[in-house]
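Before we proceed, please read the two lines closing this message. Report back on whether the structure tokens fit the sequence:
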Amino acid sequence: MGESSRFSVHLALGGGAVADVLLWRKWYRSVAFLVGSTALWFLFEIAGYNLLSFISNVLLLLVAILFCWGKSASLLNRPLPPLPSLEVSEETALRAADEIRVWVNYALAIAHEIAIGGNLGLFAEVAIPIWVISYIGSLFSFFTLVYIDVLLSFSLPVLYDKYQKPIDDKLSAAYNIAQVQYQKIDKILQKLPLPSKKQKKIQ
């Protein structure tokens, strides 16, 4: 695969500061994020610190610092804390609400197709990933899962960016095998007897 035909992982990740951190182009930021994530994981998972207490203590410390800074600034004629205007614009709220509406309608459409349409293939596509997530969740705690996601986010993109050609070949072969197995399962599901819509109405 030539250099010009390579898939740009950096652009796929947004091409900004986040992509630079995930691909270790700003290695000091990547190291700082990993160290911070490891410290938080150790704090909550190993040391057993309570999340609600941690958030409350951090907010209490932040409020106390800002209060003391503001009071001392007025007494000593110093500049006030450089806080931006803390508000959510109407445009941002409408954009977020519209994005949420799209995802909610998509989920409702899938639920309708499974419940009313009796689509076994779609049911399997939804049920199997949910079962896998449930099984993985029974093996690890929430904080450990988040920490594993962080480690994967800092390892998989950079590995794919470095070894793109052999990984693409392996993924293509695995995809072809999965397609064959899916077609076999789909044929079996289609042969299963399902009550027609007329029979449902009669019942």
Notes: Confidence is low (pLDDT under 50) at residues 197-203. The chain is about 75% helix and 0% strand. Residues 45 and 142 are 9 Å apart (CA to CA).
